C-alpha cells in the first residue's frame, strides 16, 4: 500500500517553520518546561514501546534525536532506528549529536519526512516512539493511521506529550512555569512569539479518553493512556492487532 499524498497547507508550513526557528534552544526549553523530568519520561516511553535488541524502530517527530538515541541503545548494533522529522534544523542537531557520540551510532538514520505521509512500506517497524509530536500535527487521526500502517502486526508505539492537567492546582503550576520560566527564556532568545503557541496547543489537544478513541478509530487493537506528573504529561501506548 502506498501512503496517500498529502498536500502542504499554510498551517503545516507554519509549524514546520516554527520548529526550524526554535531548534537551537529546543532542548534547553524542554528542560525548563519539564523541570528536567523529560529525560525520565522519555526512558519510560522507550520502555513502553517494547523495543528490544535487533528490532527496527521508528522515532516519529524525532526533533533533536534524544528518543531515537535511547531507542538505539535498546536495539543495539543488530537493530536499526529511523529518526523522522519534517524540521531540517532539528534533524541537523540530531545528526550532530549522533556524530559526537562514541562509538558513533551508525544504526540510526535521520530522515526528513511528513508524519502524515511516511516513506516506509506497510508493516515495517517492530516498535515506535513519538515525543511531543502528536500535539503539533495538523491531523491527529491521520497521523495515528499512518503510524498504524507502518507498524508490524502486534507492534507497539508509545506517544509522549505535554497535556493540560484537569486538576486546577496543577494547571496553575503549569501556567506559572510557562509564564515565569519558559516565556522569559524564549524571549531572551528572541523567540517569544514562537513559544506563544504552547498554551493554545495544550488547550486544543485531546485528553486521554479522546486519544484512546482516536487510536481505536485509527485501527489499533489496544490503546491505553498513562497520565504522568498529575496529568501534566501523558503517554498513549497503542498496539496493532496481531493478525
UniProtKB/TrEMBL annotation:
Pathway: Cofactor biosynthesis; phylloquinone biosynthesis. Pfam families: Ubie_methyltran (PF01209). This is 2-phytyl-1,4-naphtoquinone methyltransferase. Its EC number is 2.1.1.329. The keyword Methyltransferase applies. It comes from Laspinema palackyanum D2a. It catalyses: demethylphylloquinol + S-adenosyl-L-methionine = phylloquinol + S-adenosyl-L-homocysteine + H(+). NCBIfam families: MenG_MenH_UbiE, PRK00216.1-5. Methyltransferase required for the conversion of 2-phytyl-1,4-beta-naphthoquinol to phylloquinol. InterPro entries: MenG, SAM-dependent_MTases_sf, UbiE/COQ5_MeTrFase, UbiE/COQ5_MeTrFase_CS.
Amino acid at each position: 500500500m502506498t501512503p496517500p499524498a498529502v498536500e502542504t497547507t499554510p498551517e503545516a508550513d507554519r509549524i514546520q517553520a516554527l520548529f526550524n526557528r526554535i531548534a537551537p534552544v529546543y532542548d534547553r526549553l524542554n528542560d525548563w518546561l519539564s523541570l528536567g523530568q523529560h529525560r525520565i519520561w522519555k526512558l519510560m516511553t522507550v520502555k513502553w514501546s517494547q523495543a528490544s535488541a535487533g528490532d527496527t524502530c521508528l522515532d516519529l517527530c524525532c526533533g533533536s534525536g534524544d528518543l531515537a538515541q535511547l531507542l538505539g541503545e535498546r536495539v543495539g548494533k543488530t537493530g536499526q532506528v529511523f529518526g523522522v522529522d519534517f524540521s531540517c534544523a532539528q534533524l541537523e542537531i540530531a545528526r550532530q549529536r549522533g556524530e559526537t557520540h562514541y562509538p558513533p551510532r551508525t544504526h540510526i538514520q535521520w530522515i526528513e519526512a511528513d508524519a502524515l505521509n511516511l516513506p516506509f512500506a506497510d508493516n515495517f517497524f517492530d516498535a515506535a516512539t513519538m515525543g511531543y509530536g502528536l500535539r503539533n500535527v495538523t491531523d491527529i487521526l491521520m497521523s495515528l493511521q499512518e503510524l498504524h500502517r507502518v507498524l508490524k502486526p502486534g507492534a507497539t508505539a508509545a506517544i509522549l506529550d505535554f497535556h493540560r492537567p484537569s486538576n486546577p492546582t496543577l494547571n496553575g503550576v503549569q501556567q506559572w512555569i510557562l509564564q515565569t520560566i519558559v516565556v522569559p527564556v524564549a524571549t531572551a532568545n528572541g523567540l517569544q512569539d514562537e513559544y506563544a503557541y504552547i498554551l493554545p496547543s495544550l488547550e486544543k489537544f485531546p485528553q486521554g479518553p479522546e486519544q484512546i478513541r482516536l487510536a481505536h478509530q485509527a485501527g489499533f487493537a489496544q490503546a491505553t493512556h498513562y497520565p504522568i506528573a498529575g496529568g501534566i504529561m501523558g503517554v498513549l501506548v497503542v498496539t496493532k492487532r496481531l493478525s
